[in-house]
Amino acid sequence: MSNLIRHVILKDNVVVNAIEYETLQTGCPEGLEDVIAIASDAGQIGWIYANGVFTNPNPPVIVEIPAILPPTPEELMAQLNAIQAQIAALK
Description:
The model has no long low-confidence stretch (mean pLDDT 87). By secondary structure, the chain is an alpha+beta fold. The chain contains 1 helix and 5 strands, in the order βββββα. It starts with a strand and ends with a helix.
């Protein structure tokens, strides 16, 4: 079994594909003169390649969700009293 080498295919400095070759490739793959193959485990489709670094142009957005705390016993008692008052008013 041969060890395959992962390469990314760049067009206009954007990763357009990923492919595995049996040998290390450099430059333009045969028949694809408008793209460049670079050995990389890091680059992902859609990422930008500049100055030897792959960058995700759409990094994930991290949204902090505030913690929802359960009501305190005092708050529960206040809610219960309010409900009991509403029930008493209906009678």
